[in-house]
Write a structure and sequence with these properties.
The protein has 14 helices and 19 strands. It is an alpha/beta fold. The chain has two domains: about 250 residues, Aldehyde Dehydrogenase, Chain A, domain 1, CATH 3.40.605.10; about 180 residues, Aldehyde Dehydrogenase, Chain A, domain 2 (3-Layer(aba) Sandwich). The protein has a seven-stranded mixed β-sheet with strand order 11-12-13-10-9-15-16, with helices on both faces. Strand 12, helix 11 and strand 13 form a beta-alpha-beta unit.
């Protein structure tokens, strides 16, 4: 795939970029190694000063970088501004809390009994240059939620961003440079996916994090495993959105529209499979379909647009294939299931609700990356859990119920990295984020995330020698 900005609202190629050559790539890897040797010794207060400065600059740049993101991948402009604002808040969150999150741990004397130690501690030390392979759907946030904790921990970053968001990728490098981070602390590598293996195998790269497809995750994990290097993977998701009889159906349906259509439906943690109890199925579907049908599809630069184009022509073709397969096998389109007639250019697809979805359909097993909702009717809690877990993915989940007993059952039985009740999944710096099964492993954000790329070091001190100068009693 060429490294280029292609406007998904028009299909027009606006700017192309040359891939880094071997000599320049070598220079940048050497620079990362040199930068880490110095940067790892800096204080938390100094790192926080730099990261807060980056947050201030990002706030100032918000209108411009929002337009860049919208131009490159098609998200509505209001959502792009919100993404930039969220990134600045996350930077400040880690700047304020990193020192506490990585504070040395001191086992008690009782815990150390029989260890032979007079005292001991656990320290969190940075690993080194970390390769970040990032996707296009949240081109700023996905990077910042790695970069902010990694830089505060004393690591340095090497970004291999998606090839269709090169201007956003270059902006990130420039942002950290303008904030005053030492040269080489955060670098954007304009390379294709074929270069990732060589970079990851380089002795100077300590670890890797990837957010993206299962195929990309398998590839990176295989190379990292061969090299015995730490990885964190956040892969696909087909999150369930369960609605039980005790739910506030009106509010659940309104939230379901946002949960499915946010970011033009292109979000790993978007609710994609709507599993609704038979008692409230029809009422929910009526409201949900009306909400999806009412969304404004159009130019993502317009403030009133709810849903812009999909990020690529291939992405739309893949989504269409899933919908066509479901319709052929008996699903019913309550709305959408087509390209909008008023948008002959660009990669648009109407918000779609499919009912009568069954496990014979591809959309039951595969991730629908666009504004298409698959709705299931279930008879009770047990069936809801079975359908929710009948997926290779396990990123997050949403449950609508006001029954405390049901809450405990869903927490116990849902196979996912998160269970969100009476609301929609959203990432926040204070909460760990990640999945199970084929949605990946490891965690981003919170204290769990910042420690992923640390050397958890045991510091042990032997018995103290007798003090020969001690007074004799």
């Amino acid at each position: 795939m060429p490294i280029a900005t292609v406007n998904p609202a028009t299909g027009e190629t606006l700017k192309t970029f040359d891939e880094l050559g071997p000599e320049e790539l070598e220079r940048r890897l050497a620079l990362a190694e040199t930068a880490f040797a110095q940067y790892r010794t800096t204080s938390f207060s100094h790192r926080a000063e730099l990261l807060n400065r980056a947050a201030d600059l990002l706030d100032q740049d918000q209108p411009d970088i929002a337009r860049t993101m919208t131009t490159e991948m098609g998200k509505p402009i209001a959502a792009a501004r919100a993404e930039a604002a969220k990134c600045a808040k996350a930077m400040r969150w880690y700047a304020e809390r990193a020192e506490e999150l990585l504070a040395p741990e001191q086992p008690s004397a009782a815990d150390l009994k029989d260890s032979g130690a007079s005292r001991a501690s656990v320290r969190y030390r940075p690993l080194g240059p970390v390769l970040a392979v990032m996707p296009w759907n949240f081109p700023l946030w996905q990077v910042v939620r790695f970069a902010a904790p990694a830089l505060m921990a004393g690591n340095v970053g090497l970004l291999k961003h998606a090839s269709n968001v090169p201007q956003t990728a270059l902006y990130l490098e420039d942002l950290f440079q303008r904030a005053g981070f030492p040269d080489g602390c955060f670098q954007t590598l304009l390379v294709g996916s074929g270069a990732v293996e060589g970079i990851l195998r380089d002795r100077r790269v300590a670890a890797a994090t990837l957010t993206g497809s299962e195929r990309a995750g398998r590839s990176v994990a295989a190379v990292a495993g061969d090299e015995v290097k730490k990885t964190v993977l956040e892969l696909g998701g087909s999150d369930p959105f369960v609605v039980m009889p005790s739910a506030d159906v009106e509010r659940a349906a309104r939230t379901a529209v946002t949960a499915r259509a946010q970011n033009n439906g292109q979000s790993c943690i978007a609710a994609k499979r709507f599993i609704v109890h038979a008692e409230v199925h029809d009422a929910f579907c009526e409201r949900f379909t009306a909400g999806m049908r009412a969304l404004s599809v159009g130019d993502p630069m317009r403030e009133t647009t709810d849903v812009g184009p999909l990020a690529s022509e291939q992405g739309r073709a893949d989504l269409e294939a899933l919908v066509d397969d479901a319709l052929r096998l008996g699903a019913v389109a309550q709305c959408g299931a087509r390209r909008p007639e008023k948008r002959p250019r660009g990669w648009y697809y109407e918000p779609t609700v499919l009912t009568g979805v069954s496990d014979s359909m591809r959309i039951h097993r595969e991730e629908a990356f666009g504004p298409v909702a698959a709705v299931y009717r279930v008879a009770g809690l047990d069936e809801a859990v079975t359908v929710a877990n009948d997926t290779p993915f396990g990123l997050s989940s949403n449950v609508w119920t006001r029954d405390d007993g049901e809450v405990e059952r869903f927490v116990r039985d849902l196979e996912a990295g998160g269970v969100y009740f009476n609301g929609m999944t959203a990432s926040h710096p204070a909460l760990p984020f990640g999945g199970v099964k084929r949605s990946g492993y490891g965690r981003e954000l919170s204290g769990h995330g910042i420690r992923e790329f640390c050397n958890v070091t045991t510091v042990w001190h032997g018995p103290e020698p007798d003090d020969v100068n001690a007074p004799v009693e």
